[in-house]
Structure formats: structure tokens, C-alpha cells
Amino acid sequence: MKALLLCVPLFLASGADEPETFGALTVEVAASDAGLRCTLRGTNIPVDRVVRELATRSGRELTGFEGIARAALVTVDLVDRPLEEALEVTLGSVGLRAELRNDLVRVVPSTFQDREPKELRELATASYLSALQRFPEHPLGASARLSQATIEEARGNRSAALEHLRALIESYRTSPLVHQARLRAAAPLMAMERHAEAATDLRLVAAASGAAPWHAEARLELARTTLALGNPELCEAMIATLERSFPTADRQVIAERELVRAEAFLQLERWVDALHAVERCASLGMPTTLEVPAMAVRARAFEGLDMPKEASRAWLIVATLDSGEWQRTAFERSAALALESDEEVSVLFIAAAATRAGSDAELTKSVFEARRRLGLPEDTAALEPPLALSYAEELANNERWTELSPTLDRLHEQRAQLSYEDFVRLASVRARQSFALAGIDAALGVLRDARWELETSEARQPIDQVAAELLELGRNFDRAVLAYEGVY
Question: 3-class DSSP state for residue 269?
Fold first, then answer.
């Protein structure tokens, strides 16, 4: 690689008007096929002197120091770095950054404080990746891998986080961070339902002599993993052993252990024991971070005890406390259980709360049924076609023929969205309504129209059967025989 080397030793001594003495600065700039690469060495150097030399030796004009404290001092020791990196490190240490163009270096204040977290994570990821590629065996590489895993977890990218943790474990086997990495790996593995792998990592941490600070946490997570693998009895025993081996007065730790035990009781259908476990947490003062999972345990325990009213209220508390993964399920369960408890008015309040919370909970069916029971106006326009069809069949079974028309007209317009089975059900209800209101000929006309929208004789048979049954109902047995053969 052909390169042009420019070595500029600069000795910055104090003058009559500069009482402070600065150290020596060495700047080396090499032009290569990959671009300019720089070496900087100096202690206690004004930042503008360093950047000015880099700009001059790279053939660029320097601007932007006007109005900026150019006398800020830096100590630099960079060897064979790209020009961009040299400027980034030098200026970044004093809260500045460079905008680099072909003929210009422009210095501006750093805007990191104004950037979005997503952009900052991307910049951090790029910096860590560059450092690891350049210094793969550096002792701080393990810490860099752990930081990258943290960034990916914040992004919600479990697979990438797991890759960094695995790389740390494989590449830095003697690092004390290996135990922490194994412990951290359990969370994404559990989220991806790779419970057996998580259990393997946790056992290694729990058994490692050098991992004493993480033993208690590893055993708790191992109990949680054991529960996920379908062994609640062993999980309960592990929690009991953990409490004997690692007693604690920490409310957070006690609550976490009790909630794992409560989850085991739920799987064992020991509903009352699950409630007692939550009450033990509450008696010590429930940590705020665990209020939602604790209330969810109560809700499921009440369901198990066939106490729908209490379960509905518990789920509503979960929904109001949480705006994340629990909220939608909590609103839906609360409304369904309120309906089961004949608490129709509560269903409407729950739906209003879900709307205020901006939840995407699917409450249409529960709200519709509650309004129907309360005798309030029923709006089928908001119902999905299959649900509206079920409602139409209920009206037909109760011979509420005139009330059917708006719903049936809307469904007829939406018939292209229906499955084959629902299309046949719609044709049947429309024919029954026409039979009741206008007679057999009107009903047969509806069925004939529906019949010709179906392509095969086999698909048309259920329609023909409805026609025959209506004819039999009118005691037209001869025509009914023909209708079974598709003639009517």
C-alpha cells in the first residue's frame, strides 16, 4: 500500500501573553487507499490546535470554532486511526463534533443530548462493533459485548442480544462477566420458549464456585424455568430450598419468590394457596414493579375458584395499572367475566375505561350482549360479520323477523367476506325471514339467488336442503322432493 507520510512535531511553548505551558503534540497523517489515517499523541493540548493540524494536513479549511471555547485542553493517544475517528474522539471529549466535507472541517456543538434514544443506540452499536473488530482480544471486549446485549434488549431484539451474550461466553471464557452473561441469556431464551437451554445456563451459574454473587438469582430463575417446563411441584420445592439457603429481608426479592411460588400453585390448581402467597407479599409492602403480576395471580385464582365477579374486578385493576402486555387481555377477561356475573352495566364501564386507555382490546361482543340484555339500542354495524350473523340467527330463532332486516341487508352486502359455511347460514336466515313475511315463493327466490352464486352441485346441496325443508313446512311435499334435487 503506497502511502504519503507527513510527520509534524509541534512544540507549543508558552509566550509572553500565554502564561500556561502546553505539552508537545505529534501529528502524523498518512494518505492510503482506504483514506486518510492519523496518529495523534499529546498531553494537555488546546483542542483547536489539534483539530487545526488535522484539517491542515488533510487539505481542508477549518471553521466553526468561533464562539466556542477553543482553549479546552485534551490529551490524545491515537495510533493509525481514520481521520473521521480521530476528529470524533478529539472533539467528542470536550462536547463537540465535526462535520467533515471534501474541503472543509466544520466544528459544531455536540447534539447527542437532542438525539432520539434509537439514534444513540445505533451510534453506540457502531462504536462497539468498530472497537471489537479492531481490538478483538482486548480485556474490555467482554464488557463491550455485555453492553451490546443491553442495547439489543432495549431495542426488543432478543436474538441479537442472545448472540452477543453467547459471543461473550465463548470468546472471554475467563472473564468474571461470563456468569452474568449466562444469567442474562436466560431471559431472552425464556421469551423465545427455549426453556431447556435457559435451564442449562442457569444450572451452570448456580453451580459455579466463582459465581457466588449470582447464585440466589440463578436459583430463582431456574425455579421459574422449571415451572415453564411443566413441573410446578419441583418449582415449589426449589423455592422452599432457596429460602432456606439464601434468606433475605429484601422486599423485592421476597415478592419475586412468592410470585413464582404463586404461579406454581396456579398450575397445581391450589387457588387459595396462590392467594395466600400474594397476600404474604402485600403484608410486607408490595413493590410497585410487581403490582401487575400479583394482581393477575389474584384474578386467575378467583377464576379458578369460580368467583367471576371478583375475578372481573381484579382483571380491571390489572388493566388500569398496566399499559403493556397485560392490558388487552385484562380488559377482555374483565368484560367477559362481568357478563358471566350478570354485571351488564359493569361491561359498559369496562369498555369506556378501555377506550380512555387507548387499548385495542376486543370488547365488541361483550358490549353488544350487555346492551342487548339491558334493552338498549343494538348497533350491529360495529360487529364483525360472523358475530352479526350469530345475532341474526338468534333473532330468527325468536321470530323477531322485522328487526332482522337491517342486519341481513348489511350481511348480504358483505357476503363476499363470509366463509362458505357462513354464506349458507346467511341464505338460510334470509329465506326463513322471507317465508315468514312474504311466503314460500319469496323464500325460494332468495335461495335460488344464493344457489347460483355457488359453483358446484355439492356446494349447493345445503341451500337445496333449506328449500326442501321450507316446502315441507308448508306441506308441499311433491315440490320438496324436487327441491332436494335442486329443482324449485
Answer: coil
